[in-house]
């Protein structure tokens, strides 16, 4: 038996943050769907699962399509106008600003607009929102806490992915527009996850490419192999920790993503020409 589909909506889902400060919803638009201009006191993220339309806002009019993410900032007047032939189905997530009060400047840094699937693909927004929708439907306290945590993490990942100052790889003479959009999104994601057990295969899968094709395009655009770039990120962080903290070398190695000290010593020496102890004593 197939799963029941959501009813087709003629109007937007009613705003409802709930006691936890999370508003997670799914909306399947019918042909008669109409949305008047609205605004919220909190940031909202929309993931277009199906269809095509336009987002009209104080900032202008932008086309949105399947896979795109729409980021609506607090106080922004906006509405969605569906294409007549391809109504939109979307996931939505709103987070109360009180939950972001510990880092209040992040709300002001969120860039409103429509962002392509390529830019945010490594963020895994659809998988994350599906989990949030499930957790939001549970009644136990642990699930509610997990829902809040997952929602904050998603907004943090989006904020990092869309922050242009996070582009830390060597672009040489290339402009941002010349960088492959899939690689751009992945590189920004990697800059915050290099210490995790990442692999070349997982990187290629994240960008929807074969291992060989990904490796060739990565080196063409970045100027290094994938592994060289990962080692550069890990060693750069290790150098910072060695110079500015008193953590043991073993702790630094594991914190930067190295599973054993032998590999850590070898890679640090190859990248910097020095042993970790020499870097610390400098």
Keywords:
Jelly Rolls, alpha+beta, three-stranded antiparallel β-sheet, 2 domains, Arc Repressor Mutant, subunit A, 11 helices, single chain, 282 residues, 41% helix, elongated
Could you explain how this protein is built, in words?
This protein is an alpha+beta fold and 282 residues long. The protein folds into two domains: 22-161, Sandwich (Jelly Rolls), CATH 2.60.120; 165-282, Orthogonal Bundle (Arc Repressor Mutant, subunit A), CATH 1.10.10.60. It is built from eleven helices and eight strands. It has helices at 105-109, 117-120, 125-136, 141-161, 181-190, 200-206, 211-222, 226-244, 249-255, 261-272, 276-281, and strands spanning 22-28, 44-50, 52-57, 60-65, 69-72, 78-82, 89-95, 113-115. Helix 3 packs antiparallel against helix 4 (141-161). The chain starts with 21 loop residues before the first strand and ends with a helix.
- CATH homologous superfamily of the largest domain, by name? Regulatory protein AraC
Looking across the biggest beta sheet, what order are the strands in?
1-7-2-5-8
Distance between the termini: 68 Å
DSSP helix fraction: 40-55%
Second rung of CATH, namely the architecture of the largest domain: Sandwich
- Please state roughly what percent of the residues sit in beta strands, choosing from under 5%, 5-15%, 15-25%, 25-35%, 35-45% or over 45%: 15-25%
Assembly state: single chain
Flag low-confidence runs: 166-177
Mean pLDDT metric: 87
């Amino acid at each position: 038996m197939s799963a029941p589909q959501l009813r087709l909506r003629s109007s937007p889902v009613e705003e409802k943050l709930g006691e936890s400060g999370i508003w997670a919803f799914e909306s399947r638009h019918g042909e008669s769907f109409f949305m008047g201009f609205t605004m919220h006191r909190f940031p909202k993220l929309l993931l277009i699962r199906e269809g095509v339309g336009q987002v009209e806002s104080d900032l202008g009019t932008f086309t949105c399509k399947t896979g795109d993410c729409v980021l609506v900032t607090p106080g922004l007047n906006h509405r969605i106008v569906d294409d007549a032939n391809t109504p939109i189905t979307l996931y939505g997530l709103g987070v109360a600003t009180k939950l972001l009060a510990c880092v209040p400047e992040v709300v002001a840094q969120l860039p409103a607009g429509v962002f392509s699937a390529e830019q945010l693909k490594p963020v895994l927004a659809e998988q994350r929102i599906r989990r949030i929708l499930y957790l939001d439907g549970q009644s136990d306290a642990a699930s509610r806490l997990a829902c809040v945590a997952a929602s904050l993490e998603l907004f943090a990942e989006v904020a990092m992915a869309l922050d242009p100052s996070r582009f830390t790889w060597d672009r040489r003479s290339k402009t941002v527009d010349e960088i492959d959009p899939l690689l751009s999104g992945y590189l920004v994601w990697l800059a915050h996850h290099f210490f995790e057990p990442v692999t070349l295969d997982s990187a290629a899968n994240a960008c929807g490419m074969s291992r060989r094709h990904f490796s060739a395009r990565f080196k063409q655009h970045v100027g290094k192999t994938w592994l060289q770039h990962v080692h550069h990120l890990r060693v750069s962080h290790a150098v910072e920790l060695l110079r500015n903290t008193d953590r043991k070398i073993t702790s630094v190695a594991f914190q930067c993503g190295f599973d054993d000290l032998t590999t850590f010593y070898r890679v640090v020496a190859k990248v910097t020409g020095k042993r970790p102890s020499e870097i610390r004593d400098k």
